[in-house]
UniProtKB/TrEMBL annotation, chain A:
It comes from Chilo suppressalis. This is Small ribosomal subunit protein uS5m. Keywords: Mitochondrion, Ribonucleoprotein, Ribosomal protein. It is found in: Mitochondrion. Residues 192-238 form the S5 DRBM domain. The lineage of its organism: Eukaryota, Metazoa, Ecdysozoa, Arthropoda, Hexapoda. InterPro entries: Ribosomal_Su5_D2-typ_SF, Ribosomal_uS5, Ribosomal_uS5_C, Ribosomal_uS5_N, Ribosomal_uS5_N_CS, Ribosomal_uS5m_N, Ribsml_uS5_D2-typ_fold_subgr. It comes from the Eukaryota.
UniProtKB/TrEMBL annotation, chain B:
This is Small ribosomal subunit protein bS16m. The keyword Chloroplast does not apply. SUPFAM superfamilies: Ribosomal protein S16. Coiled coil: none annotated.
From TrEMBL, chain C:
It comes from the Eukaryota. This is 28S ribosomal protein S22, mitochondrial. InterPro entries: Ribosomal_mS22 (IPR019374). PANTHER family: MITOCHONDRIAL 28S RIBOSOMAL PROTEIN S22, SMALL RIBOSOMAL SUBUNIT PROTEIN MS22.
């Protein structure tokens, strides 16, 4: 019973539809051009509208497998996918129409807007083409000078923030610097050549705590993250001398890399390899000089430097080793002897061996000496014209000083003679 | 480099030496070194030794400064070095030598021209007065 | 018209205000100028007294040299980057030798600028030659630049336009010596800080005494009038403001103490010593006065006491423990100063008050140290 009633209700709705169909007027007065009649078939389906945009672009931009193996499709002439929708707005096209409710508001003020044709914009297409062309060029991400690393937008030298917190323990005050990021190619039996990324970073809080880490992953970002977190796990504490430099000069090596580190006074700065500089900043060392000899393999440099720092001896340790007072002389204090460390028992002069190393620097460097290279003359210094220049310049050597002196005394380059002979004026003054 | 003020000039033991003024300084700004050099050598050539200096332009206090290394001057005089008249005049004024006759002559000439100038002025004034009267 | 008038009045008020402030400024600076320089130009020459051994020893002890201040970090080294410190391994003997060397260096750093009488003008005519009149309108200055002669013995003569040959006066000698044998840091022209009163007073107000005195030492000779004027004003400024601590451990404390004692004006320093409970130094000051003037009641007693004090170590800080010898010596000092206050002092009440304060403090200290001794069972 219910079924029947339902059917009935559907019919009652269907009836008006039939009525509507009947009322539609099909165009009757269409003039068919039968005189120019063509029997050739027109294909409305072609290559460009059969395939989706994605596949079309791929056919243009991708390089065949054989081509890619030959190294094609990498350089400057590489075609890139353009987003043709960019710059296009719904409702605005070749013909400049005003569509209320689509490309314009329905009511403007008190006026009801009507659909109408506006004058054509001849520059529209040019603008679009220009926009599309700009997409083809590859643009580097611009970094602020502070964020930049050692070179350009590459990762080495850039900061990647503190290591990720472990549970509730956060690395506050830490900062991580990338020292190395490189891709390694590994041959595999079933996959062939695969690309791996390796990153070396150093993290530290600038107050003695620092560590370095090495991370490998298929992606660069993953490698960096791994390295960073590993560095956070391997923190070491280093004491610094007065919070600005190392305790003493030292020699350290790892593999074929040799580093000669020199302690420096306040205000000297960090004059060393850029990786060592980053490590020093992570630890909080401000003044130091380091000379590198042998291999400059970065990972070896980092390891050698950390080993050297760990092998430092404090002044008290040195004094105990030698069983002698350790005395410091500073030029700014007129070389007043200041005892920085005293051993529990001091040896006498007789107890010192005849061929013992007593020189402090020699002792802490383990008898190693830094190679001091002779200064190479500038390219012009050996040329004959330089001698002539020096000879000619000799008579002007004090001019700048004297001009400065006159300026401080008289406010201009003149002397008491100018006041004595006012009629003798230079052209510029007159 | 230019030769140093002292010590690179050629020295022949038996050749005649001369103590003379050697012009240094630049255009419109004379300055002299008092130097001993071989007598037959140009002033532009390196000297045996510098013995002093003379700045002929009066300074802000209207003074002309002369520096003399009297010990070395005595030494070279003892060696028989010849002294040129300008240097002899300077040494005379300093009281090291007797006053050079040329200094007296210059002084006398200067006084004379000044007197003449004054006389001329007086005459000119008189002439003016007479014409005015 | 009325507006114009009111503007004028306003302007006038402004002018008046400005003037008023000007006069204020003037009076402020006048207060400083009102320090009259007292120079060593009397009949008596201070040099023999200043250089006598007794006075030198007293002055050095009064300087109270603290090596932390004598060898403090100085920024005037002229270096861009401080050189790396040097380290040495030393035995006990070597360390003592080094410390002795440093003591000698400290002596050199604390060497006092000499106090001497003001110089007499040089007026020596060597020859007169009227026949040279008209030779030149300029003076000729002759300097003997012979190697190895000291500046003060250098032969410097001038030939005047009237033909007179004479020895040069001090200012010309100084200028020519500086021209041919320049002293590092000395300027041919006087520095503005000495010629411009305003700037000089600003420096004094900022209590840059050591800088002023160091620069004066460099720029002038000790027997020059300007030097004595500058140092005199500086010493008086220190004395008035009781900034003696600024000069302690410097080479200028000795001449300052000598200056105020010479002019019988050392009561401010005495008061400062008593207030800082340095009674031993107060006795030394009394002895110094007796050495210079010989007018202190029982001055010989003070001199004998000074001989007892000199071998004892310098007290840079107040002692926290006393031995019986210390107590004896200090009691003697107190009685000596009492006599000085009664007979010679110009600030009797203040100094007596300070001495009373010291006595009370000292009594406490004695009880404390004796009690401690008892507690340790050493008494």
């Amino acid at each position: 019973m219910t079924m029947l009633s339902k059917l009935l209700s559907i019919r009652s709705i269907a009836a008006p539809i039939n009525v509507f169909y009947k009322q539609i007027n099909f165009p009757v007065n269409v003039i068919h051009n039968l005189t120019n009649f063509s029997t050739t078939s027109v294909k409305s389906v072609n290559f460009f509208n059969k395939l989706p945009a994605e596949k079309l672009w791929k056919s243009v931009t991708s390089v065949s497998n054989a081509g890619a193996k030959k190294g094609r499709g990498k350089g400057a002439g590489r075609i890139r996918i353009r987003d043709l929708n960019r710059g296009q707005v719904i409702g605005i096209g070749k013909i400049n129409m005003l569509w209320p409710g689509l490309s314009a508001p329905v009511i403007r003020g008190r006026e009801l807007l009507k659909q109408q044709r506006l004058p054509d914009d001849p520059e529209r297409m040019e603008k679009l083409i220009k926009l599309r062309d700009s997409m083809t060029k590859f643009r580097r991400l611009r970094l602020s000078p502070i964020e930049r690393g050692w070179s350009g937008a590459r990762m080495p030298g850039r900061s990647i923030g503190p290591p990720d917190p472990i549970g509730e323990d956060e690395f506050t005050g830490f900062d991580t610097k990338v020292l190395q990021l490189r891709s390694l190619l590994i041959m595999k039996g079933n996959l062939g050549r695969t690309r791996n990324y390796q990153a070396m970073v150093v993290t530290g809080n600038g107050q003695g705590l620092a560590g370095f880490g090495l991370g490998r992953a298929k992606e660069a970002s993953a490698a960096l993250r791994k390295a960073k977190n590993r560095a956070g796990q391997k923190l070491m504490h280093f004491e610094t001398y007065n919070g600005h430099t190392v305790f003493h000069d030292f020699y350290t090596a790892f593999g074929k890399t040799k580093i000669f580190v020199q302690k420096k006074n306040e205000g000297y700065g960090l004059k060393c390899h850029r990786a060592i500089k980053e490590i020093c900043q992570a630890i909080g060392i401000k003044d130091l000089r380091a000379k590198l000899e042998g291999s400059n393999n970065l990972q070896h440099i980092v390891k050698a430097f950390f080993i050297g720092l760990l092998q430092q001896r404090t002044h008290q340790q040195l004094a105990e080793e030698k069983k002698l007072h350790l005395v410091e002389y500073k030029a700014e204090n007129a070389y007043y002897p200041k005892v920085v460390a005293s051993p529990s028992t001091v040896r006498t002069q007789d107890e010192i061996l005849k061929d013992e190393t007593l020189d402090f620097v020699q002792y802490v460097m383990n008898d190693r000496v830094i190679l001091k290279k002779k200064r190479f003359p500038r390219f012009y210094e050996t040329m004959p014209h330089y001698k002539i220049f020096l000879k000619k310049f000799e008579r002007y050597r004090n001019h700048e000083k004297i001009r400065l002196m006159l300026k401080t005394e008289y406010g201009a380059v003149k002397s008491f003679l100018n006041d004595r002979y006012p009629e003798e004026k230079t052209e510029s003054e007159a | 480099m230019l030769p140093p003020a002292s010590g690179t000039g050629k020295y022949f033991a038996k050749a005649a030496k001369s103590i003379r003024l050697i012009r240094q300084g630049c255009t419109n700004r004379p300055f002299f070194h008092i130097s001993v050099t071989q007598r037959r050598r140009l002033n532009s050539q390196p000297v045996i030794e510098q013995l002093g200096s003379y700045d002929p332009m009066p300074n802000i206090n209207n003074e002309k400064l002369v520096a003399l290394n009297l010990e070395r001057i005595k030494y070279w005089l003892g060696k028989g070095a010849h002294v040129t008249p300008p240097v002899a005049e300077i040494l005379g004024l300093s009281g090291f030598f007797p006053i050079h006759p040329r200094s007296y002559m210059t002084a006398w000439r200067n006084r004379k021209t000044e007197q003449e100038n004054i006389a001329k002025q007086i005459e000119a004034e008189k002439a003016k007065e007479s014409t005015a009267a | 018209m009325t507006i114009f008038l009111s503007k004028l009045v306003q302007n006038n008020i402004k002018v008046f205000l400005v003037r008023n402030s000007d006069t204020q400024l003037f009076t402020v600076s006048y207060r400083n100028i009102s320090i009259l320089p007292n120079i060593y130009d009397g009949k008596e020459d201070p040099a023999p007294k200043f250089f006598s051994r007794n006075v030198q020893v007293l002055l050095k002890r009064l300087t109270r040299p603290d090596f932390a201040k004598v060898f403090r970090k100085r920024t005037s080294s002229g270096r861009d980057v401080l050189p790396t410190p040097i380290y040495k391994f030393l035995t006990n003997e070597a360390l003592e030798a080094e410390l002795a060397k440093a003591n000698k260096k400290a002596d050199r750093l604390l060497q006092m600028p000499p106090v001497v009488k003001i110089q007499q003008p040089i007026n020596e005519i060597l020859s007169e030659d009227p026949a040279l009149i008209g030779y030149d309108t300029a003076k000729y200055l002759f300097t003997d630049i012979t190697f190895g002669i000291a500046n003060e013995h250098r032969l410097i003569v001038e030939r005047d336009p009237d033909g007179t040959l004479r020895s040069c006066d001090h200012d010309v000698r100084k200028r020519l010596n500086q021209t041919y044998f320049p002293l590092n840091g000395r300027k041919l022209r006087e520095p503005v800080m000495f010629t411009d009163e305003e700037r000089f007073n600003t420096l004094l107000e900022q209590q840059e005494y050591e800088f002023v005195l160091d620069r004066a030492c460099l720029q002038y000779e000790p027997d020059e009038l300007t030097y004595q004027k500058i140092t005199s004003i500086t010493y008086q400024h220190i004395d008035m403001n009781k900034n003696f601590e600024k000069l302690r451990s410097t080479r200028h404390f000795g001449p300052m103490a000598f200056y105020i004692t010479w002019h019988q004006n050392m009561d401010n320093l005495m008061l400062e010593l008593l207030q800082s409970s340095a009674v031993r130094e107060a006795v030394l000051l009394t002895a110094l006065r007796h050495e210079i003037h010989g007018d202190v009641a029982e001055g010989d007693n003070a001199k004998i006491l000074a001989h007892e004090i000199l071998p004892t170590p310098i007290q840079l800080t107040k002692p926290d423990r006393l031995t019986e010898e210390d107590i004896q010596l200090d009691n003697k000092c107190v009685s000596c100063i009492e006599k000085y206050i009664v007979s010679n002092s110009m600030m009797k009440s203040q100094q007596e008050l300070a001495l009373q304060g010291f006595r009370e403090y000292y009594q406490q200290l004695i009880e404390l140290s004796r009690g401690l001794k008892k507690a340790h069972g050493t008494a």
